[in-house]
């Protein structure tokens, strides 16, 4: 049975006073079983809004989220509760997301109680299995408090709390960005192992394109609520096509000793969603921008190798009409 969580969302941020802000525009992503899709972009680009819309924590005003090819956008009551069990989200901050007054056992038990799963003996077995999944020994940690744990252990407990309901789909929203760099890789590896062991579909959200290389099969790069580039992770990391992706990649410190670090800075800040530039949304920060870019919005085009990119530089017809343009490929 093939699993799909798919979103094609057009949504507005909270606040009913016009003008409505389009946080996401024509975003279309498919995540399969045992697949980790990376969603990358700077803060404020709409990544978290998309993640929360997928698990129905946030109500999109348009578009659809499909789960097993069925829309979940209008689920109510029992069906919504069941979906909330199957689609879980893990947040960035393992310090504020765990109640400091509850023990680890109680924290992981909470969602089981909310979903009426029990008796207590069965819940204990499920809690032990969830801790086992995240490689934390229940025998020593069940009665510990969050303050007894390191940041990495806390995030593992947050993952166990999500896993205890046996979800099929997990949104991991910046799960390692508040953790010490030295332990980030181990938490990402755990997500990767869990995806394969449990057949989970994972949306991994991050502002850091360097981390998606560890675990993602597929990557979507987002800018101001739009996907600007999408394709297999190894292709995008080896050869980023969109000028925005190229700049995200250039911002990664070069770890090779003695190498000259070519650092191309992104100029300026992300424009606010109320003030989206005409034409290409990236034009106010793009070093390749032409008059065409500031007047005509590029489509997300599929290239011969199947990758998708939203930039006039890769549009053959336009490149012909503007012979001065040289694709940065
Ligand atoms: Fe830059 Fe123009 Fe491509 Fe936009 S369409 S990314 S402004 S070259
Ligand atoms: Mg965010």
UniProtKB/TrEMBL annotation:
Name of the protein in question: Peptide/nickel transport system ATP-binding protein
Protein's UniProt keywords contain Transport: yes
Principal location listed in the UniProt entry: membrane
Example of a GO biological process term: transmembrane transport
Domain spans labelled ABC transporter: 1-249
Coiled-coil stretches noted in the UniProt entry, renumbered to this chain: none
Keywords: ATP-binding, Nucleotide-binding, Transport
Listed GO CC annotations: plasma membrane
UniProt-listed Pfam families: ABC_tran, oligo_HPY
GO molecular function, one term: ATP binding
Topology with respect to the bilayer: Peripheral membrane protein
SUPFAM superfamilies attached to this UniProt entry: P-loop containing nucleoside triphosphate hydrolases (SSF52540)
Localisation per UniProt entry: Cell inner membrane
UniProt cross-references to PANTHER family, sorted A to Z: D,D-DIPEPTIDE TRANSPORT ATP-BINDING PROTEIN DDPF-RELATED, TRANSPORT ATP-BINDING PROTEIN
Highest taxon, organism lineage: Bacteria
InterPro entries: AAA+_ATPase (IPR003593), ABC_transp_ATP-bind (IPR050319), ABC_transporter-like_ATP-bd (IPR003439), ABC_transporter-like_CS (IPR017871), Oligopep_ABC_C (IPR013563), P-loop_NTPase (IPR027417)
Protein family per UniProt: Belongs to the ABC transporter superfamily.
